[in-house]
Amino acid sequence: VEVSTELVLSMLELPYYKAKQVSVNRKRHYEIEGHCYPGITSILSATKPYEEKKRLWDWQDRIGKDAAREITTRSSRSGTRIHKIIKSHLKQEPYELPEGLDGFWSSIEPVLADIDEVLLVEGAVWHPLKFAGYPDAVMMYEGELCVCDWKTARRPKQLEWIGDYCMQVAAYCYAVNWVYRETGIQIEKGVIAIALEDHPAQIFTLDADDLFYHWRNFQARLRQYYRQQLFKR
Questions:
Q1: Phi first, then psi: what are they for 133, rounded to 5°?
Q2: Is 38 exposed, middle or buried (0-12, 13-18, 19+ CB in 10 A)?
Q3: β-strand 144-153 against 190-196: which pairing, if any?
Q4: How far is Cα 202 from Cα 139, in angstroms, rounded to an integer?
Q5: If DSSP codes are grouped into helix, strand and coil, which group holds residue 2?
Q6: What pLDDT, on a 0 to 100 scale, did the predictor assign at position 175?
Q7: Per-residue model confidence as pLDDT tens digits over 41-56
């Protein structure tokens, strides 16, 4: 019996969950089912290797603290605004493109046009290993079910530079599979889509083996995070 893609997707429509965001030791946490779990980005930020921190410090010293702060603030603001526009676009809600985002939007719009179906936009997910987060989208892209994370950047990235992004998407995938396990879905693909101001968007795809590799790395960082919390008590 041939089953249409539309029927499969309608069967897979995912319920939306919301988690209350709270701050614990100035780190983002989510209250879910009577528990308070740290966010995935908070975990990765708190366990960033020294080498990565040193690269950031060296960059700040090279261009000056004030200039670095201005660039970081501007990048963060652009990322937040483009996320909101993409969210409205995926939910088919009206939106206006804010001034200054034309380049980023032109970069990412062709990627959005290739999405077959959106099953979930920024719904809360969590995992019994005690972490939580809000993946940007669960969707059908190029005929496959995947978790997608939208990013912005001033310059093109290389895969070896975005290990934290890969761990973030892997953690989202495993959390989505846990939360929606009764639906029978099994996501084995992650997508990182990076909007660039004056280049076409970069697409990094992670298959099942890639996700497992980055999931193992994320678990190591998660254990490190909880060890650090013990020492702070």
A1: 180, 180
A2: buried
A3: parallel
A4: 18
A5: coil
A6: 98
A7: 999 999 998 777 777 7
Which residues are paired to 117 by β-bridges? 140
pTM comes to: 0.90
* Cross-strand partners of 44: none
Q: Which of 49, 31, 50, 54 is nearest to 220 (CA)?
A: 49
What are the Cα distances from residue 140, in Å, to 115, 145, 146, 160? 6, 4, 6, 26
| Alpha carbons 214 and 206: distance in angstroms, whole number | 9
Question: Do 78 and 128 touch, CB atoms closer than 8 A?
Answer: no
pLDDT mean over 53-77? 76
* DSSP, res 160: G
The secondary structure of residue 41, as a DSSP letter, is H
Least confident range of 29-38, 61-70, 119-128, 151-160: 61-70
Phi and psi for 122 in degrees, rounded to 5? 50, 55
